[in-house]
UniProtKB/TrEMBL annotation:
<protein>
    <submittedName>
        <fullName>TIGR02234 family membrane protein</fullName>
    </submittedName>
</protein>
<keyword id="KW-1133">Transmembrane helix</keyword>
<feature type="compositionally biased region" description="Basic and acidic residues">
    <location>
        <begin position="190"/>
        <end position="213"/>
    </location>
</feature>
<feature type="transmembrane region" description="Helical">
    <location>
        <begin position="25"/>
        <end position="43"/>
    </location>
</feature>
<feature type="transmembrane region" description="Helical">
    <location>
        <begin position="96"/>
        <end position="116"/>
    </location>
</feature>
<keyword id="KW-0812">Transmembrane</keyword>
<feature type="region of interest" description="Disordered">
    <location>
        <begin position="177"/>
        <end position="213"/>
    </location>
</feature>
<keyword id="KW-0472">Membrane</keyword>
<feature type="transmembrane region" description="Helical">
    <location>
        <begin position="144"/>
        <end position="164"/>
    </location>
</feature>
<dbReference type="InterPro" id="IPR019051">
    <property type="entry name" value="Trp_biosyn_TM_oprn/chp"/>
</dbReference>
<dbReference type="Pfam" id="PF09534">
    <property type="entry name" value="Trp_oprn_chp"/>
</dbReference>
<dbReference type="InterPro" id="IPR011746">
    <property type="entry name" value="Trp_synth-assoc_CHP"/>
</dbReference>
<feature type="transmembrane region" description="Helical">
    <location>
        <begin position="70"/>
        <end position="89"/>
    </location>
</feature>
């Protein structure tokens, strides 16, 4: 008795990559949008606090993320734009935009972590408050917002890595709407039936030869 080998249906073989593409697309969109929003929000919050000695007293100072560094917010905007542009390009262009998205996330993480221990913004404010260019801030402390911005960068980085890995499976926004400018051929109408006078009159109204000659 011979054995029958089951041959997998092509439809089921193609279902796996398509499912992976849809899942990765949803995760990348969620991570990219959420990461950019988190990084932008964190950049507007207070990152560090301290005091400056002014006229014998202590003057409270604080610095937001944008005071410390504008890099995370700028890269978050670049990453968000790259996330949208992924669907407008194909092949090599999609790979380059996905790489830009990943680099934006990595840069956001690095800038946020470096800004977590930066004191230059508060030192500048202390110098302005005291009128002494050599003045520095006292009793400086940092908040958790720089690390929140870094978490947003991690999400952007994840979205970029997903685009690099699965971007070839994602749909292109302009694919079904592209037009090359060439006129589409008109469908030929069948000749009017001479046994049906109403069809011949309709053909004449359209400016056609009812005989089809």
């Amino acid at each position: 008795m011979g054995y029958v080998t089951a041959v997998p249906h092509p439809r089921y073989e193609a279902a796996g990559p398509a499912r992976s593409g849809r899942r990765s697309l949803a995760i990348a969109l969620l991570c990219g949008a959420l990461g950019a929003a988190v990084a932008l929000l964190a950049s507007r919050q207070g990152w560090s606090e301290g005091t400056a000695t002014v006229a014998g007293g202590d003057f409270p100072l604080s610095a937001t993320g944008s005071d410390v560094t504008g890099v995370p917010a700028a890269l978050a905007i670049v990453g968000l734009a790259a996330l949208v542009a992924v669907f407008a390009v194909r092949r090599a262009g999609r790979f380059l935009v996905a790489a830009l998205l990943a680099l934006s996330g990595a840069g956001t993480v690095a800038a946020a972590l470096l800004g977590a221990s930066d004191s230059s913004a508060l030192d500048d404010k202390a110098a302005q408050a005291s009128g002494d260019t050599a003045a520095t801030v006292d009793s400086m402390s940092h908040t958790a917002w720089p690390y929140v911005a870094a978490a947003g960068g991690v999400l952007l980085l994840l979205a970029g890595l997903l685009a690099l890995r699965y971007g070839r499976l994602w749909p292109a926004m302009s694919g079904r709407y592209e037009r090359d400018g060439t006129p589409r051929p008109r469908k030929a109408r069948p000749a009017a039936d001479p046994d049906r006078p109403e069809e011949m009159w309709k053909a004449l109204d359209r400016g056609e030869d009812p005989t089809g000659a």
